[in-house]
């Protein structure tokens, strides 16, 4: 019980200390809100934009882009990871191209995505999907290849087909690593959605940041960043809960 309380209380205490120090430094040093707003100013701006309804459509747009990109990129990465793990030939043929596609900066491709897909949600979703694709593909590929050789040999001796071995052994055994890939992809999806909104988007928290920068409204920038951080933390915790629920039936067998 004490350990649970310490894990929950200590982060909150640290946050209060950091925010209090930030507030004190800003007030004592007389730093302009244009350079660094105090936490109290950020909270007021965040509350005003939420209560007035200004920020909610932008939060909804960012969430939609993040979840769509995560779904598309995650599904493609999972499928590609399984295919490369199951076929040495596919691994040799496609792996170099996958790596090359990932070393190209996505931000450099953003103008092309706008040109190809137009303004709106589509180019941001495509960028987010590309960012989510690789970590899930790599985690899936690695997890499926690290299955216990003794278990694989047992399945072969029992006459299991490749599909049965994949569904009943490799995927359950590799589930922790695959779910870890989903967690990484989730965080990257939020980053990709916000970065994609920097170019050509009229809605979303990234667009709010660009607009606030143009208006030199630093508290609004920090309010948008706070909303992004809150979304990331909540989604990550939700993913952890889903992961624990999915892993519970396997118990000690993993």
From TrEMBL:
<keyword id="KW-0472">Membrane</keyword>
<feature type="transmembrane region" description="Helical">
    <location>
        <begin position="180"/>
        <end position="199"/>
    </location>
</feature>
<dbReference type="Pfam" id="PF00528">
    <property type="entry name" value="BPD_transp_1"/>
</dbReference>
<dbReference type="GO" id="GO:0005886">
    <property type="term" value="C:plasma membrane"/>
</dbReference>
<dbReference type="GO" id="GO:0055085">
    <property type="term" value="P:transmembrane transport"/>
</dbReference>
<keyword id="KW-0812">Transmembrane</keyword>
<feature type="transmembrane region" description="Helical">
    <location>
        <begin position="220"/>
        <end position="242"/>
    </location>
</feature>
<keyword id="KW-1133">Transmembrane helix</keyword>
<feature type="transmembrane region" description="Helical">
    <location>
        <begin position="61"/>
        <end position="86"/>
    </location>
</feature>
<protein>
    <submittedName>
        <fullName>ABC transporter permease</fullName>
    </submittedName>
</protein>
<feature type="domain" description="ABC transmembrane type-1">
    <location>
        <begin position="59"/>
        <end position="243"/>
    </location>
</feature>
<dbReference type="InterPro" id="IPR000515">
    <property type="entry name" value="MetI-like"/>
</dbReference>
<dbReference type="InterPro" id="IPR035906">
    <property type="entry name" value="MetI-like_sf"/>
</dbReference>
<keyword id="KW-0813">Transport</keyword>
<keyword id="KW-1003">Cell membrane</keyword>
<comment type="similarity">
    <text>Belongs to the binding-protein-dependent transport system permease family.</text>
</comment>
<feature type="transmembrane region" description="Helical">
    <location>
        <begin position="107"/>
        <end position="136"/>
    </location>
</feature>
């Amino acid at each position: 019980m004490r350990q649970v309380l310490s894990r929950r209380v200590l982060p909150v205490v640290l946050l209060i200390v950091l925010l209090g120090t930030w507030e004190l430094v800003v007030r004592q040093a007389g730093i302009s809100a244009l350079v660094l707003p105090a936490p109290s100013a950020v909270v007021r701006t965040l509350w005003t934009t939420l209560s007035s309804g200004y920020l909610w459509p932008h939060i909804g747009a960012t969430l939609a882009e993040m979840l769509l990109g995560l779904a598309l990129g995650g599904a493609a990465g999972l499928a590609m990871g399984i295919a490369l793990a199951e076929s040495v030939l596919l691994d040799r043929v496609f792996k170099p191209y996958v790596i090359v596609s990932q070393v190209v900066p996505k931000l450099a491709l953003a103008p092309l995505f706008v040109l190809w897909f137009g303004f709106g949600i589509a180019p941001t979703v495509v960028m987010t999907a590309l960012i989510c694709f690789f970590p899930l593909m790599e985690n899936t590929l690695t997890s499926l290849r690290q299955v216990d050789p003794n278990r694989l040999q047992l399945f072969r001796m029992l006459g299991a087909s490749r599909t049965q071995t994949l569904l009943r052994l490799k995927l359950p055994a590799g589930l922790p690593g695959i779910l870890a890939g989903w967690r990484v992809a989730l965080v990257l999806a939020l980053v990709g959605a916000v970065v994609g909104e920097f170019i050509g988007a009229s809605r979303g928290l990234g667009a709010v940041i660009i607009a606030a920068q143009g208006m030199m409204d630093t508290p609004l920038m920090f309010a948008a960043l706070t909303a992004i951080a809150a979304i990331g933390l909540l989604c990550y915790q939700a993913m952890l809960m889903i992961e624990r629920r999915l892993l519970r039936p396997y118990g000690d067998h993993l």
